[in-house]
Design goal:
Largest sheet: 8 strands, mixed
Helix content: 25-40%
Shape: rod-shaped
Strand content: 15-25%
Structural class: alpha+beta
Distance between the termini: 27 Å
Number of helices: 5
Number of strands: 14
Low-confidence stretches: 248-261, 354-367
Radius of gyration: 40 Å
Amino acid sequence: MQMSSRVKVNMMWTDLELQWNETNVKAVMLPVDKIWTPVIVLDNAIDVNIKPYTNDVLVLKNGTVDYAIILFIAVSCDDINLFSYPFVNDNCRVAINGWNKRGCGLSFSQTTNISVVKSTQGEWKTMDVTITQDETSQNRSYLSVSLSVSPFSAVVTLILPSVLIMLADLVTFALPVQGGERNNLKVTLVLSFTMFLLILNDHLASGGQCSPILHYHFCFCLVNLVLSMVMSILLTRLTLDDRILPCKCSKNLKKPPNASLGQDEADAGVIATTKSSDLPSEVASLQKIVNFFEKMDQKEQVANSNEDFVDRLDKICLYIFLFIDIIYIIIVVIVTRTEFCKENKKVFWDKEDFHLYYNYSEYYDYN
């Protein structure tokens, strides 16, 4: 996480060498490169570019210098907690200080007159900027920039598509298990979600110690879709052949299917070639016809039994996935409303450059 900013710093200090006794002239304009100007240091900056606001500075009769500079800075904001992204509201610290060395240096006397000119950049918005005293050092303070994320874009492009795909997966249970319509639709959903993740992989926010919960959300959705697809394929297979279930026994399963098929064909051939020559032969033929239709009816009953069994399993799977989704939603709501993950504030001050042994310093103010 990096924050790029354009900061205007108005500074005032007193330089005793620039005083004069002439009463008619109360202020003069001097070139900025002809007088001493303080040096600004940013301890946690990644990139800094300092430019004077004007080429001239205002010097008053008593030696007070009014000077302004423009800072183009990029600051590391690893302390921002992105766990609840896109519902983020956290602070980024900017350590603007004077040049410090052991024995001499500069110290800030900061005012509270801070204004925000442009507060929105992309989905991030600057809510407020305050001066905060550092807890580890009494002589140092930093700018605390309160940032928040506009959740609309992330909700529309990240959360809403995943929720709709999960909802479509539950709706597919309304399709019949027989045939391949449901399996084709589930495979399409898995492929669509995978392409969705590949496209948005570079746009997902990441960084810091707490990974955004959206990463875990997408992982759960992908696993759920794959399990639903595998379960649907297994149920479709059961409608055709229930021998993959050892617990579901049937008398017909004990007979080889090829033998049963050959016997049926033989009976049908005998029935087709039987001639009604006498009464006993007619009775035998009728008995074979009855046996043939009983076998056909028995096969139909077994097939219907398999379909009923698969339909019951299908309803159980629907209830299981629905229960898992409801529990997942409850867990997500609870986790996002609690401080589940906290970022540890890092120390960004350069302690070696801080004067420890002397109390010699020059003070100047900025607002």
